[in-house]
Amino acid sequence: MALNRLFTGLTLTSTSIARRTIQTSCYNFASRPNVEKPKPGFGKSYRRIVHFPEEYTVKPLNVTNLAGRDPVTGRVVAKGIGGGIKHKYHWIDWYRKGPTEGPPLEEKVIQVIEDGCRTAHIALVAVGDKLKYILATEKMKAGDIIKTSCHLPRIPVKANDGDAYPLGALPTGTQVHCIEKEPGMGGLYIHAAGTFGTILRKQDDRIIVQMPSKRLFSFDQNCMAVVGRLSNVDHGDTPIGSPQRNRWLGNRPRSGLWKRKDGRHGRKIKPPKPIKEIALSNKKQLPAITLRMRP
Predict the structure, then answer these.
(1) Which of 209, 211, 56 minimizes the C-alpha distance to 134?
(2) How far is CA 122 from CA 39, 45, 202, in A?
(3) Is 167 within 8 Å of 225 (Cβ atoms)?
């Protein structure tokens, strides 16, 4: 009798624990919102949010740092982002608009400054009574006069650094950046420091440009592009120097579990494969085939 009571008690206790576990899991599953975790990439940045006004301004804009989190759900999306010095954002005017006929529009460079939210330097340019920011080229300095024209001439134009012309107006071999995807969309390609594209050839109404990745892109000849190589050429070759400076740049340290050669998910050092002998194979000749005709 005592043994039966003991087994019965154990059965009831295990049953109650199982029911409690099921109820708790159902409650957690029902109360948890059905939110899909966003993925990094797809042209969306999880480093900062820039508060743009309605109209263009050269006044530095306020920034909200996200530290790699989704602004809606608050979940960590990009693990390598975190910390960093707070910077103001300078609004770049990606549209270089000029006259379609007659002499080009002349603009004056007021100053060239560094921007903490991008790798290349930027330039403050005066256009009549208006000011705007553009990406500075390698040789651009204060006091330079840059030209902008949308005219497509019959003879290629000899342009200087910072000038903006259609791709069809520039000669072969010209270094360009801030290339439009379609005419009138604004400069979309080649923004990083020290990069440039090269005009290779012309095919009918298309211009073939070699991108910094060595890929060949075909653009419409009316797409605007800025002549020259982007500034801050030594950006990629400058060492960070210390872990603290890496934190200033907004990079969160890794866990330390990953090592390139022998660590977790790393490349393992394997012994070399045995020597493979390369020689002509002695293939046996196949026996001759005899064909017989039978009635």
Answers:
(1) 56
(2) 31, 21, 31
(3) yes
Is residue 147 over pLDDT 90?
A: yes
The predicted-structure confidence for 66-125, as pLDDT tens digits, reads as follows: 988 988 888 888 888 888 888 999 999 999 998 998 899 999 999 999 998 899 999 999
- Residue 9 pLDDT > 60: no
Distance CA 272, CA 294 (A): 60
Structure tokens at 261: 């050669």
- Number of residues in the chain: 295
What is the rounded distance in angstroms from the CA atom of residue 197 to the CA atom of residue 256? 38
The token duo for 184 is 């009138």
Could you tell me the pTM of the whole model?
0.72
Residue 6's pLDDT is what? 42
Answer whether 145's CB lies under 8 Å from 157's CB. Answer: no
- In 3D, which of 238, 258, 122 has the Cα closest to residue 178? 122
N- to C-terminal Cα separation, the chain: 97
pLDDT in tens, 205-246: 889 999 998 888 999 899 999 999 999 999 988 898 898 999
Tell me whether residue 21 is exposed, middle or buried, using C-beta atoms within 10 angstroms of its C-beta: 0 to 12, 13 to 18, 19 or more: exposed
CA-to-CA distance for 99 and 108, rounded, in angstroms?
A: 17
Mean pLDDT of the region 279-291:
77
